[in-house]
Design brief:
- It is built from 12 helices and 12 strands.
- It is of the alpha/beta class.
- Helix 4 packs parallel to helix 12, helix 7 runs parallel beside helix 8 and helix 9 crosses helix 10.
- The protein is 37% helix and 14% strand.
- The two termini are 33 Å apart.
Length: 380
């Protein structure tokens, strides 16, 4: 059984094993498998003999003329700016490849942990050439079903660590966490909290790890009470921010691991009469449109969602053509987008804020946080 969304084979050797046996690189072995002419005759002979000796299972080459011309995109939901960015990237790359995209929402784990047969049967019926999964949490049985039917697939920002060999595309989340924290450290903050997503999700744990690494490198003590998880939920993030404000020594800055959760943080600060950034510097993550809607506009770490989606589509086409990527994990760079939500320590105006109570004495009225109502509730 061939894992078509990966570089592994459940029954039989991988292309890497064949390459090692023939004494060549994986790309060279791939060229031989795919009938490329730019391979020396002796090299081709060694690879071909290794393929036959090891019993490598050759996938038939993708034939655009015989293909349905369709690929499926399965997203977490359709009512968010996150999904809009992913759709934009996939659509542009699919147009360049001469493919059309069928979009489905909400294929996740079922209570019985079985594949959602209605959607899977439709996938077969319409003859889709491959599938992109965005923020999907596939079960072992769903992976097995895709393998059994030899359907190529690629994961965009997988929720959990995918099985060995499965091809995925994501952002440099660890480096993004480092960048966000280093920005706050450079402004003089040392009491820096983090409001993360789900503890078990790959992107969330990587961002928190980056936060911890930046603090450790700067010689700043990591305070366990400053690390909170809100499950990428705006309302929970609001409660976590209120909890941080109620600490005996509250933070002066907070790294919020998604722009959606930053909306809840702004709301909590507004409830307490505190200003951004005079009383609390805030850094988000994603650079969704919501980051620009907030007042003041949110400093955030941009992850290239459209570029991630386009890269995944191009990788899917390669797999459909039988040309497996050398690496199963592709990470695109993140970068800090500085706006108005961060400032140096001690920039507050005349007056004293009593953090942890519902009243603030003597603080001049500044630009208050304005919570924005946007659809959806749980996105990275």
């Amino acid at each position: 059984m061939v894992r078509t969304g990966s570089a592994s084979v459940a029954a039989g050797p991988t292309l890497a094993v064949v390459a090692r046996e023939a004494g060549v690189s994986v790309p060279t072995a791939s060229k031989v498998v795919n009938g490329r002419e730019d391979v020396a005759p002796e090299t081709r002979r060694r690879v071909t003999e290794a393929l036959d000796r090891l019993g490598y299972v050759r996938r038939p080459r993708f034939d655009a003329a015989k293909s349905s011309g369709l690929v499926d995109l399965v997203v977490h939901s359709l009512d968010s700016s996150w999904s809009g960015a992913v759709l934009h990237g996939v659509e542009a790359a699919a147009h360049d490849a001469g493919l059309e995209v069928v979009v489905s929402a909400g294929l996740t784990r079922t209570r019985s942990s079985r594949p959602e047969r209605g959607w899977l049967d439709k996938l077969i019926a319409r003859g889709s050439s491959g599938v992109l999964f965005n923020l999907a949490e596939l079960t072992d049985s769903q992976y097995a079903w895709l393998d059994q039917h030899s359907i190529p697939y690629v994961l965009i920002d997988p929720v959990l660590e995918p099985p060995a060999g499965v091809v995925s595309v994501g952002a440099a989340n660890w480096q993004g966490g480092v960048t966000a924290t280093e920005h706050l450290l450079a402004l003089g903050h040392e009491r820096i909290a983090v409001i993360a997503g789900h503890q078990r999700k790959m992107c969330s744990s990587a961002r928190v790890s980056g936060y911890r690494s930046a603090l450790a490198s700067a010689g700043v003590r990591i305070r366990p009470e400053y690390v909170r998880h809100a499950g990428f939920d705006e309302s929970v993030a609001r409660r976590r921010m209120l909890e941080l404000l109620d600490l005996p020594e509250p933070p002066t800055a907070v790294f919020v691991c998604s722009d959606r959760m930053a909306l809840g943080v702004y709301a909590a600060l507004s409830e307490r009469g505190l200003r951004v950034p005079e009383d609390m510097s805030v850094v988000g993550f994603d650079d969704l449109p919501e980051a620009r809607w907030l007042t003041p506009a949110l400093t955030t770490v941009r992850q290239p969602l459209s570029e991630m989606a386009a890269t995944a589509l191009r990788l899917l086409v390669r797999i459909m053509e039988g040309d497996r990527p050398e690496s199963t994990r592709t990470e695109l760079s993140t970068r800090l987008v500085e706006r108005a939500s961060t400032a140096g320590v001690g920039t507050a105006g005349v007056g004293t804020a009593t953090i942890g109570t519902a009243t603030v004495a003597g603080i001049p009225s500044g630009v208050a946080a304005v919570p924005v109502s946007a659809p959806g509730s749980s996105y990275t």
